[in-house]
Amino acid sequence: MKINAAIVGVGASEFGRFLPDTQLRLAAKALKQALDDSGLEREDIDGLSMHMGWPLGLDYDQVADGLGLNIRYVNQAWTHGRFVTNTLQHAALAVSAGLANVVACVTAISFTRERDILGGPGDMEGYREGGGTHGESPTYGLTSPSGGAALSMQRYMKLYGGTSEKLAAVPIQIRQHALLNPDSVMKEELTLEKHQSSRMVVDPLHLFDCCLMTDGAIVTLVTTKERARDLKQKPVVFAGMQGIRSSRDEFIFAPPGLGIGQQPVTHVRSRPIDTEVFDKAGVTQKDVKGVYTYDAFSPLVLFVLERYGYCGEGEALDFVQNNGIGPGGRLPVNTNGGLLSEAHVAGWNHIREMTRQIRGTAGPRQIPNADVLQWGTVWGDSVILTAA
Amino acid sequence: MSFHQGITAKPRPRITPDHQPLWDGFKQHKMMLPFCEDCGKPHLPPGPVCPHCFSDRLDWREVSGRGVVTTWVVVHKAWFPAFAEDIPYNVVQVELEEGPRITASLVGAGDQKLDVGQKVVAVFEPVDEDLTLLRFKPA
Lengths: 388, 139
What we know:
The complex is a heterodimer. Chain A is of the alpha/beta class. Chain A has helices at 23-38, 60-67, 84-96, 111-114, 145-160, 164-167, 169-178, 192-197, 225-229, 276-281, 298-307, 316-320, 338-342, 348-359, and strands at residues 6-12, 47-51, 73-77, 103-110, 200-203, 205-206, 215-223, 236-242, 290-292, 372-376, 382-387. In chain A, the strands form two sheets. In chain A, strands 3-2-4-7-1-8-11-10-9 form a nine-stranded mixed sheet. In chain A, strands 5-6 form a two-stranded antiparallel ribbon. Chain B has a five-stranded antiparallel sheet with strand order 5-4-3-6-7, with helices on one face. By secondary structure, chain B is mainly β. In chain B, strand 6 and strand 7 (131-138) form a beta hairpin. Chain B has one domain (20-138): CATH 2.40.50. The termini of chain B are far apart. Chain B contains one helix and seven strands, in the order αβββββββ. The radius of gyration of chain B is 16 Å and the shape is globular. The A-B interface holds A 113-114, 116-117, 119-124, 127-131, 135, 137-144, 147, 150-152, 154-155, 158-159, 199-204, 248, 259-262 and B 1-5, 7-8, 10-14, 16, 43-45, 51, 70-77, 79-81, 83, 86, 88-89, 91, 93, 95, 100-101, 103-105, 115-117, 133. Strand 5 of chain A pairs antiparallel with strand 3 (66-75) of chain B.
């Protein structure tokens, strides 16, 4: 089966902290905007791919009930960063296979109300049978996803050199993108001084190496390329995809080979398995005008640049210096401002931005001729989106 | 809303049947690992089968307790009320001589800076009659 899918509409609620709206109201706002954006009617939607659900959100049936949808295909992953790509990929697979005509990818998040789950005594993820996947060890006081990113960055810095000051280039440049985006929660420049004087969360990660905890919803509408051609917007086509990688080579927030958890120690560098997506899309890294990634913690951006072959083993810290990834940089990353500075909408704010960029409607953030963009995460999964 | 429901003690480990021999070993001040009787390799975290060759034939054996720090962090945020007085405190991953890595914390390092590659050895810290924690000290 060939992938035959395009993004034809995106919509969002407002993003912010302690928004009074329920998740369902946020989702309703995003869906109305996505329908308006696409020219589709609510009745056209017959598939749901949910990046939310217990324990952090409503399940698919509650959303279908509440928004009055009539659905014949459902995929659901809970609100966990790892599942953003496969939520999007399931939508593309479903329309390609004819399981649904139009799939709505829905995420609605109220992190600020439910943040206790993200670390400390409420960290039920870290405390489940077999433990958490971020290297959590509550018995020793290691909790929250930030701990996993810190474990990886500490070892990476020892092996390849690097300092917190150099790492700061990531959140500083992503903030520069955010300042060009009126939806961004963060409104002030991030300087090296501010980064270095921000409180340490878990050494080596400062506060500004950690993403925002915000509320908001995004709905992304996916249908076939043929249907997309008849709709209101310029289609944004799924040109290539690769799935999440899982084995003993993988630790959630480390590149393969780094030696975190039970990972074998090899070389942290791009392997053929990491770059299948380019072949699928018929492009190379040189064709990619911008990279979008799940920047929950600033080290993840480094690991992604190496994993997908934009730079070599241990070279990412140097790659990002001197506006490597900022506005007008050599390879712009997360031009919306990312999870670090726009908002934490589980990566869907990045998918929304990719859609705007490919349509050419990204305003002051527009990348010239943004015809090929990569979504790629530290988990090895990726989607390349292109103009039709 | 709050998920923690007023829990203020330090979290106790969640010991599954697969993990039980590891924690029983700590109580006897022994570092035990599950070895595969077919391929010979030990593994962690303790699982129901050998993850290398999928054999069911596992044998728990005492090992040296020696290893090296492969990564470390220092927690500065008071995530847990019960750890607030310990801040800042370290958590380390240690690669045991036999290969698998385990997470614990380092004691008795004094002013010595934590470092990847630091040689360490297991020590055992009784909490109460049901629980003894693994820690490491500089070797």
